[in-house]
């Protein structure tokens, strides 16, 4: 198995509200994207393609290993992953798609996703249980109904795919159809998606408090930014 990864890093991070694209925001002195890439490489991925905002190519190149391929992303996550797919090395037969916004994904999670692919899954997502009471809200802001949470899961990345399956699903997805993750893209093509346990440490940095928590996690783990995960 030759595993390559696409790291989606072309978003602006409007909810984080930083002074630079979110993937370049520093966590313990290193950009989020550098953490995310390192976690994949430590977890067993051989090649990494990072999709970036076109005008920031130089800034990304300055903080990533020279072996990482940098390509221009798109206006949406779906478009960015589509661009990354086109830049994968020929020899890759499985593909992980990861968010740069998930800097502290433990290598164990990467290994679980790769393990499920090795065992024959076409598509794999790491998930976590929902821990709060879950409701549907009506237009007037009142509770319309409670939703049983037992079967609900929060979906994380990296999500793993047989390369041909993912490529075919993106080819079948009309350009302009935007989905929030890659599991949704293959499901739209009728592909079954296996779940494996995710990890709270693989949380996505979305709002400022998430970055505070990530800083705390790095401090408590005693990591210097050279993979003490
Ligand atoms: N056009 C886009 C939009 C998002 N992403 C990437 O997809 C991942 C998950 O997206 P999210 O956390 O929502 O990031 P942003 O879209 O940047 O955030 P926001 O919605 O707050 O602007 C991020 O690593 C982001 O860089 C991307 O590659 N290309
Ligand atoms: C792909 C993803 O990380 C799965 O949880 C997530 O959907 C990306 O974030 P967004 O806010 O939906 O862009």
UniProtKB/TrEMBL annotation:
Gene Ontology terms: biological process: isopentenyl diphosphate biosynthetic process, methylerythritol 4-phosphate pathway
Gene3D superfamilies: Spore Coat Polysaccharide Biosynthesis Protein SpsA, Chain A
Positions marked as site (Positions MEP for the nucleophilic attack): 149, 204
Role of this protein: Catalyzes the formation of 4-diphosphocytidyl-2-C-methyl-D-erythritol from CTP and 2-C-methyl-D-erythritol 4-phosphate (MEP).
Annotated GO MF terms: 2-C-methyl-D-erythritol 4-phosphate cytidylyltransferase activity
Keywords annotated in UniProt: Isoprene biosynthesis, Nucleotidyltransferase, Transferase
PANTHER family: 2-C-METHYL-D-ERYTHRITOL 4-PHOSPHATE CYTIDYLYLTRANSFERASE, CHLOROPLASTIC (PTHR32125)
Pathway of action: Isoprenoid biosynthesis; isopentenyl diphosphate biosynthesis via DXP pathway; isopentenyl diphosphate from 1-deoxy-D-xylulose 5-phosphate: step 2/6
Family affiliation: Belongs to the IspD/TarI cytidylyltransferase family. IspD subfamily.
Protein name: 2-C-methyl-D-erythritol 4-phosphate cytidylyltransferase
Top-level division of the source organism's lineage: Bacteria
Site residues by UniProt (Transition state stabilizer): 15, 22
EC number: 2.7.7.60
Pfam families: IspD (PF01128)
Alphabetized SUPFAM superfamilies for the sequence: Nucleotide-diphospho-sugar transferases
UniProt catalytic activity: 2-C-methyl-D-erythritol 4-phosphate + CTP + H(+) = 4-CDP-2-C-methyl-D-erythritol + diphosphate
